[in-house]
Amino acid sequence: MPLDSTYFKSAINAAAARAYQMATRFGLSHADREDLHQELLLDLLERAEQFDPDKGSAGTFTGMLSKHRASEFLYRLTKDRWRLSFCSGNEPDEGATDPLDALADTDAVLPQWGEVTNGFDELHFARDLDHALSRMDDEQRALFSLLLEHQDTPSACEASSVSSATFYRRLTDLKMHLRMFGIKAAA
C-alpha cells in the first residue's frame, strides 16, 4: 500500500517537533536529539499502515505516537546513563538503594561521572546545575527549593501541600530532569 502524502508530511512534522521539544525541555545533546529524531521518524513510517483516516487525523495519530515513542527513548537513555554511572554490569545491583534519594542534601549532588575533585570540575558542575535549574518548570523549581529547605525527603513531603503520592511522583520527575543534565545524588 502506498504511503499517503498527508500522513508522510504529518510524520515528518511530528518527528521534528517532538525531537526539538524533548531536546529543549531535557537539554539533550545534538547527537541524542538526532538519534531521537531518526528513531521517531522511522517508527512513524513503519506504523503508517496502522493509521486509519476514518478514526482521526494524521497529525493527531503521529503526534500521540511520537509522544509515546519519545518518552520510551528518554527512559532508555536515562537507564543507559544510570547503568554507566552506577553499575559495572548490565543490571542494577539488587542491594543498592537509589542514589538519587540523597537529592535533598545539597552537598551530595555531584556530576554524573564522579565526585568533584578540583575547581575546574566544580565550575562545570555549577554551570550544569544552573542550566538544569533554568530548564525547570515552576513545579520542579518549587520542589527543589522545598527539598533544599527541609534537607530530607520525608519532612519535605509533610511540608508540601500535595498528597504523598503526588509528591513522590514529582520527585521522580525532578530526578529524571536532573539526570538528563548529568547530575546525580551521591550514594
State the end-to-end CA separation. Answer: 54 Å
- Helix-strand topology string: HHHEHHHHE
Number of helices: 7
- CATH domain class of the largest domain: Mainly Alpha
Strand content: under 5%
* CATH fold title of the largest domain: Arc Repressor Mutant, subunit A
Averaging pLDDT over every residue, what do you get? Answer: 76
* Largest sheet: spatial strand order: 1-2
Q: Pick out the low-confidence regions.
A: 88-119
CATH architecture of the largest domain: Orthogonal Bundle
**Tally of DSSP β-strands:** 2
Rg calculated over all Cα atoms: 20 Å
Number of domains: 2
What share of the residues lie within helices? 55-70%
Structural class: mainly alpha
Largest sheet: 2 strands, antiparallel
Task: Tell me, briefly, the overall form.
Answer: elongated
Description:
The protein has a two-stranded antiparallel ribbon with strand order 1-2. It has helices at residues 5-26, 30-46, 58-86, 119-134, 138-150, 153-159, 164-180; strands at residues 109-111, 183-185. It starts with a helix and ends with a strand. The chain contains seven helices and two strands; from the N terminus they run αααβααααβ. The model is unreliable at 88-119 (pLDDT under 50). It is elongated, with a radius of gyration of 20 Å. The protein is mainly α and 187 residues long. The protein folds into two domains: 5-86, no CATH class; 99-185, Arc Repressor Mutant, subunit A (Orthogonal Bundle). 65% of the residues lie in helices and 3% in strands. The longest helix has 29 residues, at 58-86.
